[in-house]
Design goal:
By secondary structure, the protein is of the alpha+beta class. It is built from 15 helices and 54 strands.
Length: 913
């Protein structure tokens, strides 16, 4: 692990020195004394895989890096959308969130990246320096004045007047060094000044949450949020400083590099010494079973990382929790509280997913516990040898060596291969199986690449072990070599040489047990020689002084109403711990609230740092480990409010559900081709079933033409909704309608082709989803009305069929506030609601009640924000195409500025009420 104290300059490595250093989102890069570039930290997009060559300068962005070569050209690497450097010659470069700018040798500024709107605002003229932040950029002109622009230039505050020689743009603020060596900092959208320690400065760097300045005598002063320790600079004398999202680095007087702050990347690789016989890798931690049957864990986990004492037979590391089979065959779990307790009994194997766990009992039966929203905890009957839990699905090896999978069909991950197998591993959206002949077969796809990334392209050859991770997989060949494949993240598929006997693939790192029983891990890149990670020395405590008498509090002036440019920042000085769901459809909302709260002055942590499943998120909020979560799906998530805490209280006793962000926004229903519905007045399922003319027109081109029936595209056979539709058909007497049950994505593609060709079609779908960005209600399709809402009578007699009712506890289910433009049958109802037929859900904000009471401004914001399913769905599609949720949120705010300002005005008004 990194040293506990700050080093002095003499501790540098004289054989490994550097000329410059730059800190990015979760990686850093430096120019070495020999002009090569070295990088370290997370490498999930290849941002830490510096190319060969000699360079003058380097800049590390969020997921890409750029450097100026000795011939003055620019080379970039990492995220493909951000790393496409232009031709030409340059003398300075700055890489930001997903955008990069450079000063050309003719003093003009050239910018490139994923947000083309920035290109329209790049200023013309001659400039000396440029700095790119997350969502804005600033440059110093030839006359020493500052110009700023960005994704929402119209709301950027006017820069302070004066002459400056350096500027740094960060997450939501900007700092500049004046010609008199003073530093001026301001909030980029409000212009509100930021307090800076008084000193004369030679350099300044602004990160995502904190900023640091290098004084003229070489000391470092930092200010801003210190949530990750990035603002707690070590003592010493330095030449340069760079602040990133969660860590900072500085070039010391001896030309070594010193870094401090978040050390997750290196804790993942801080494997224990000793000998081991099994290893399991979770998202941000790992656990291994030692030769003496004890367990060692490393990395981070939301809760205690302490390994359990005792002797064990098997171990599994999950997202925020781990479980093991003890020597007495019982199951022991540890990590974040709030998960269901493991079942009693005797077991031979256990596997932990994101929100659930499964184990194989000594009699071969599988027992699962935890979340069951996709049926992942509903284990199949039979006898099994082993089980592997994915995020919301599982695969198991039966006693006859065949594979059975169940739960959520994540991109086809339930497609179990035929044949006999020795092992199976369930990854995020793909699984890989080791056949009894040693070959490997994979099913599914890359969760972030709809086309392909090679994640299911298993290598040829014979193997003895396999493990499926987030976007990659690894296997141990019969000769002991490790082979990895999948997303080319430059570190995760770059397996170490040597001979091994077991391997575990995770989200950000992988680990393997060598033939000498030691553990090796890879993924993030460790700092090279000459780079030291430190924890600054805490000052000696001063003797406690008597508390002074409180001074009279002066009367505070009333806050002014918002003037449209965000001058009132009532959240100033308050740090907010934001989280997000562990499914990509929730990333956009979390990123949006982060930006909105920051415009109100709050310091908000990166939601990705607290990515959790529902079972963990609600407990974390109740325990004040997280302030709010914008990904609550109700009524389904109310079950997590009933979890009991160690003090005997319920989780829900500490939480509040606020606002109507997506009220009635979780929709299910039937879509119909718009042109067909308008031509025959077929606006309900009853119209289709009972209108002979409409039925004949539909039947003429449907799945089985001429049979007098209307075949509608329904659900996948692995989903519960196919049974619900069968109950709807029987309950409503739709004797002329037949549901096609097959692979949903394949059926939806046929439905899309029908709509594009103007062919009659009905398909079941839901929102938010990418599907309603293709078949768009009110544009090329309508929501079909269902006149008779299914009750709990279970007309088909299905098992659990009484739970399929859609009327809800108050009997008003199946009606949603969708107007006649998208659901024509709503025009026939006095309440104007669409009889969509399915019980609507809500995606809302949940927050810690004490936090809301202390922050009425935040509560008012949560109550004001309202989104549409289409907006969230469009963001989801953009994410699947490679866009970063933070960038999407920036652009969304830009495109909806008037609406956003209305929300912020409501929130600011709450500060004075």
């Amino acid at each position: 692990m990194p040293p506990e104290t700050a080093p002095v300059a003499e501790e540098g490595d004289p054989e490994h020195t550097y000329k410059a250093v730059s800190t990015g989102g979760s990686h850093s890069c430096a120019v070495a004394a020999d002009d090569t570039v070295v990088c370290w930290g997370f490498n999930d997009a290849g941002q830490a895989a510096a190319p060969a060559g000699t360079y003058k300068a380097v800049s590390a962005g969020t997921a890409h890096s750029c450097a100026i070569a000795v011939d003055d050209s620019i080379v970039c690497w990492g995220d493909e959308d951000s790393a496409d450097a232009p031709a030409g010659t340059y003398r300075a470069v700055s890489a930001g969130g997903s955008f990069t700018c450079a000063v050309a040798v003719d003093d003009s500024i050239v910018c490139w990246g994923v947000d083309s709107s920035w290109l329209d605002d790049v200023p013309a003229g001659d400039y000396k320096a440029v700095s790119v932040g997350r969502s804005h950029s600033c440059a110093i002109a030839a006359d020493d004045t500052i110009t700023c622009w960005g994704a929402d230039s119209s709301s950027l505050a006017d820069v302070p007047g004066g002459a400056y020689r350096a500027v740094s743009a960060g997450g939501g603020r900007t700092c500049a060094i004046a010609n008199d060596d003073s530093v001026v900092c301001w909030e980029s959208h409000s212009g509100e000044p930021v307090d800076v320690p008084a000193a004369a400065y030679q350099a300044v760097s602004v990160g995502e949450f904190s900023s640091c300045g290098l004084t003229v005598d070489g000391a470092i002063n930092c200010w801003g949020s210190d949530a990750w320790g990035a603002a707690d600079a070590p003592a010493g004398v330095y030449k340069a400083v760079s602040v990133g999202a969660s860590h900072s680095c500085a070039l010391a007087a001896d030309d070594s590099v010193v870094c401090w702050g978040d050390e997750l990347a290196f804790r993942l690789l801080d494997v224990p010494a000793g000998t081991y016989r099994a290893v399991s890798v979770g998202s941000i931690h790992g656990c291994a079973l030692a030769s003496d049957d004890t367990i060692d864990c490393w990395g981070l986990i939301h809760g205690s990382i302490d390994s359990p004492v005792g002797a064990y037979k098997a171990v599994s590391a999950g997202g925020t929790r781990s479980c093991a089979v003890a020597a007495d065959e019982s199951i022991v779990c540890w990590g974040l509280a709030g998960r269901a307790d493991p079942p009693a009994g005797n077991y031979i194997d256990v596997s932990v997913g994101d929100r659930h766990s499964c184990a194989v009992a000594t009699d071969g039966a599988i027992v699962c516990w935890g979340d069951n929203d996709a049926g992942q905890a509903a284990a199949p009957a039979g006898a099994y040898k082993a089980v592997s839990a994915g995020p919301s699905y599982n695969c198991a090896i039966a006693v006859d060596d065949t594979i059975v999978c169940w739960g959520d069909d994540v991109f086809g991950a339930l497609d179990s291969p035929a044949g006999t197998f020795a092992a199976v591993s369930a990854g995020t959206a793909h699984n890989c199986a080791l056949a009894t002949d040693g070959s490997i077969t994979c099913s599914g796809r890359d969760p972030w690449n709809a086309n392909h990334s090679g994640v299911v392209d298993a290598p040829s050859g014979t193997y003895v072990a396999v493990s499926a991770g987030y976007r990659h997989s690894c296997a141990v060949a019969t000769d002991g070599a490790i082979v990895c494949w999948g997303a080319d993240d430059a570190g995760l598929v770059d397996a170490p040489s040597g001979t091994y006997k077991a391997v575990g693939a995770g989200s950000y790192h992988s680990c393997a047990i060598a033939t000498d029983d030691t553990i090796a891990c890879w993924g993030p890149r460790l700092p090279p020689a000459g780079v030291r990670w430190v924890r600054p020395v805490a000052p000696d405590p001063e003797p406690k002084q008597p508390e002074p008498e409180p001074e009279p509090v002066p009367e505070q002036p009333e806050l002014e109403a918002d003037d449209g440019v965000g001058t009132v920042r009532p959240g100033e000085g308050v740090t907010v711990l934001a989280g997000r769901a562990d499914w990509y459809q929730g990333y956009f909302q979390a990123a949006l609230f982060k930006l909105l709260l920051e415009e109100l002055g709050y310091r908000v942590s990166d939601p990705a740092g607290l990515e959790m499943s529902p079972s963990d998120a609600y407990t974390a909020m109740a325990l004040e480990d997280m302030d709010f979560w914008a990904n609550s799906w109700y009524p389904g998530h109310y079950e997590w409010h009933d979890v009991e805490l160690p003090d005997g209280s319920r989780v829900g006793d500490h939480l509040s559900v606020v606002g109507e962000m997506l009220f009635d926004g979780v929709l299910q229903g039937f879509l119909v081709t718009k042109s067909f519905a308008d031509a025959y007045g077929a606006y309900t399922m009853d119209d289709l079933n009972n209108n002979a003319e409409a039925l004949a027109a539909y039947d003429a081109t449907d799945h089985v033409p001429g049979n007098g029936k209307a075949e509608i595209y329904g659900c996948d056979g692995f989903w519960t909704c196919d049974d619900i539709i069968e109950n709807m058909i029987a309950f409503s007497g739709w004797d002329n309608i037949i549901q096609i049950i097959g692979d949903y994505d394949a059926d939806f593609e046929l439905a899309r082709q029908d709509v594009d060709g103007g062919v009659p079609m009905v398909v079941y779908t839901w929102a938010p989803s990418l599907y309603i960005t293709v078949l768009r209600p009110g544009d090329n399709v309508y929501w079909l009305g269902v006149e008779n809402i299914l009750d709990d009578s279970n007309p088909t007699g299905f098992e659990r069929g009484e739970e399929f009712g859609q009327r809800g506890p108050d009997g008003t289910g199946g009606l949603v506030s969708i107007g006649p433009d998208q659901c024509p049958s709503a025009a026939d109802r006095p309440d104007g609601k669409c009889p969509i037929g399915w019980l609507a859900g809500h995606i809302l904000v949940t927050a810690n009640t004490a936090f809301l009471e202390a922050n009425p401004v935040a509560r008012a914001l949560f109550e004001a924000v309202k989104l549409t399913p289409l907006e969230v769905s469009q963001a989801n599609v953009a994410q699947l195409e490679g866009a970063h949720p933070g960038d999407l949120a920036v652009r969304w705010i830009q495109d909806n500025r008037t609406r956003v300002d209305e929300w912020l005005t409501i929130a600011r008004t709450a500060a004075s009420s």
